[in-house]
Design brief:
Chain B: Belongs to the complex I 24 kDa subunit family. Chain B: This is NAD(P)H-dependent oxidoreductase subunit E. Chain B: Keywords: 2Fe-2S, Iron, Iron-sulfur, Metal-binding. The structure holds two protein chains of two kinds. Chain A has three domains: 18-224, Rossmann fold; 234-317, Ubiquitin-like (UB roll) (Roll), CATH 3.10.20.600; 322-407, de novo design (two linked rop proteins). Helix content of chain A is 45%, strand content 13%. Chain A has helices spanning 18-23, 30-34, 38-48, 60-68, 90-96, 98-112, 126-141, 169-176, 205-217, 219-223, 256-263, 288-293, 298-303, 322-336, 342-359, 365-378, 386-406, and strands at residues 75-80, 116-121, 154-159, 193-195, 198-204, 233-240, 246-251, 273-277, 286-287, 312-317. In chain A, strands 3-2-1-5-4 form a five-stranded mixed sheet, with helices on both faces. In chain A, strands 7-6-10-8-9 form a five-stranded mixed sheet. In chain A, helix 15 (342-359) runs antiparallel to helix 16 (365-378). The model of chain A has no long low-confidence stretch (mean pLDDT 97). Chain B is of the alpha+beta class. In chain B, 48% of the residues lie in helices and 12% in strands. Chain B contains seven helices and four strands, in the order ααααβααβββα. Chain B has helices at 7-17, 27-38, 43-53, 57-66, 86-90, 93-104, 137-146, and strands at 78-83, 108-113, 125-127, 130-132. Chain B has a four-stranded mixed sheet with strand order 2-1-3-4, with helices on one face. In chain B, helix 2 packs antiparallel against helix 3 (43-53) and helix 3 (43-53) crosses helix 4 (57-66). Chain B is elongated. Chain B starts with 6 loop residues before the first helix and ends with a helix. Classes of the chains: A alpha/beta, B alpha+beta. Chains A and B meet through strand 3, strand 6, strand 10 and helix 14 of A and helix 2, helix 4 and helix 5 of B.
Chain lengths: 410, 147
């Protein structure tokens, strides 16, 4: 069931060092890269239908084209700010195969015509970004990077400082410009992001790490994995009440329950499955009966009223309290709201406080109504999708487990 | 004595200046270097940063107070950050936090934090930034007493 494209070298000892990386195929796609024109690389990425792996799932090729179409200075920013509860896949690439990421950055920069790339790493990942930094230093020494390389690319690691919202690409760029991580207003028509006024492509670590395979083997080789609309693989992560929590790469479209049982080792302590949060904390929860029919791709989970997100599954067993679980998540949202938009700043604070009443079993019927009403107000009335995500989480818990909330009403 | 970067950090800053199109982008790296040097970010460090990047002090203070990892007040020397988010809670982080509070709060700054991206190693904490995963109270005793 495990399919290894991006994670192929993860278990090789010292795979983060350049000699081991070179022995195991790293940088071997560069010949194919430089034998093509930049537009040809973009076309291959479009044909592969590589989708962004940071949670949104937007086609990568379209974003590349937008950045490529501009003249002058351009930037590639790699989003390594994964901070979504349940998500810990990019960390594996940074620490176990950073040369794969560097190889992907070189190909992407070549395709869009950029010479400068920043890897924005979440502040907490200091020890993993140090590993990536030493890989970058090695790549400079061997002339894969820098002015002596075949195509000049400079990579700088930029360390965040503890703000979940900086995973949102425009907030990330604000942060990279030295400001508070406040998301920007979205343009009406598609355009690239801008870093200090220059067109900029922002892609997730895993998206960029998927590029070498596609460039080397072609779009069809990538599309041979996964489903028609969700081709390829994803580094799905699994945690919570399971026997073998971890990161296991699999094709899109595999059965969620099979994944939990075969790769995650099944529910811990022989307990029954109660629910799964399928793709990081911001994706609506699925009760066990829906998990049985769910497949791990964008379309299947959307059809079930949730979403694939980052593919970071959190498994809850029969003993888990849904009231306590929602309280836990809403405290996260309250803590991490950037405070820019009132419905989010006030709303996340309000629902977090109301959840105290439910946890302490002193809520009233009115509290339940307020919870629903505030959730509605947070949805669609803010600059970014942080508040709508929190709203979707609340709605998911209430839709499937409202009886547990009613039990907490005095 | 007013804040200034040591020689090692000053040379790092000169290298960093070449990496960004605008000195404003140096604010986060400069705050990190100031925090590393003094263990927290002093007011005069922010004044110094404002001179380097040629922006008002307010801009530096605004950024420093936005990000949860910047410390503007002196803390205990050793810091333990314990994750409280869902996968950790499902695997017993509340007991871990209590064990830390009950036994180590005199010598260590115990801070409860949001998800650290180590959900497969739940429950977890960091000790001075280093990840320690699959925690048990016994393991905490071993690690914190050895350090």
């Amino acid at each position: 069931m495990q399919t290894k494209i991006v994670s192929k070298n993860f278990e090789i000892p010292l795979s983060h060092t350049i000699d081991v990386a070179l022995e195991n195929g790293r940088y071997s796609s560069l010949e194919a890269t430089f034998s093509k024109k930049p537009q040809e690389i973009i076309d291959i990425i479009k044909q592969s239908n590589l989708r962004g792996k940071g949670g949104g799932g937007a086609p990568a090729g379209g974003k590349w084209q937008l950045a490529s179409d501009y003249e002058g200075t351009k930037y590639l920013v790699v989003n390594a700010d994964e901070s979504e509860p349940g998500t810990f896949k990019d960390r594996r690439i940074l620490s176990l195969d950073p040369h794969l990421l560097i190889e992907g950055i070189i190909a992407t920069c070549y395709a869009i015509g950029s010479h400068t790339s920043y890897i924005y790493v979440r502040g907490e990942y200091e020890e993993f970004s140090d590993i990536t930094q030493s890989a970058i230093d090695e790549a400079y020494e061997r002339n894969f990077l820098g002015s002596n390389a075949k195509y000049r690319v400079d990579i700088t690691i930029h360390r965040g400082a503890g703000a979940y919202i900086c995973g949102e690409k425009s907030a990330l760029l604000e942060s990279l410009e030295g400001k508070r991580g406040h998301p920007r207003l979205k343009p009406k028509s598609p355009e690239p992001e801008f870093y200090f006024g220059s067109p900029t492509l922002v892609n997730n670590v895993e998206t960029i790490a998927s590029v070498p395979f596609i460039v080397k083997n072609g779009a069809d080789a990538y599309r041979a994995y996964g489903t028609e609309q969700s081709p390829g693989t994803l580094l799905f992560a699994i945690s919570g009440n399971v026997n073998r929590p971890g990161v296991y790469e699999a094709e899109f479209g595999v059965s969620m329950i099979d994944y939990i049982q075969k790769l995650g080792g099944g529910v811990k302590n022989g307990k029954k499955l109660k629910a799964v949060i399928p793709g990081g904390a911001s994706t609506p929860i699925l009760p066990a009966d829906m998990v049985e029919s769910a497949r791990l791709d964008y379309e299947s989970l959307r059809g079930l009223g949730s979403s694939l997100g980052t593919g970071g599954m959190i498994v809850l067993d029969e003993d888990a309290s849904m009231v306590k679980a929602l309280k836990n998540l809403l405290r996260f949202y309250h803590h991490e709201s950037c405070g820019q938009c009132t419905p989010c700043r006030e709303g996340t604070s309000w629902v977090d406080k109301i959840m105290n009443k439910f946890v302490e079993k002193r809520a009233t019927k009115e509290d339940l109504q307020i919870l629903k009403s505030v959730s509605k107000t947070m949805n669609g009335k803010t600059i970014c999708v942080f508040a709508p995500a929190a709203s979707g989480v609340i709605d998911g818990f209430l839709k499937h487990f409202e009886s547990e909330f009613l039990e907490c009403i005095k | 004595m007013s804040f200034s970067y040591n020689i090692q950090n000053s040379s790092k800053i000169e290298l960093l200046k070449k990496r960004y199109p605008d000195n404003r982008a140096l604010i986060l790296p400069l705050l990190w270097l100031a925090q590393k040097q003094e263990s927290y970010i002093r007011e005069d460090a922010m004044e110094h940063i404002s001179e380097i990047v040629q922006l008002p002090y307010m801009n530096i203070y605004s950024v420093a107070t936005f990000y949860s990892m910047f410390r503007l007040e002196k803390t205990k020397k050793r810091i333990v950050e314990v994750c409280r988010t869902l996968s950790c809670e499902l695997n017993g982080s509340e007991d871990i936090k209590k064990h830390l509070d009950d036994n180590y709060s005199d010598n260590f700054e115990i801070i409860e934090v949001e998800c650290m991206g180590a959900c497969s190693g739940a429950p977890m904490c960091t000790l001075d930034g280093k990840y320690i995963e699959n925690l048990t109270p016994q393991m905490i005793d071993e690690v914190l007493n050895a350090n």
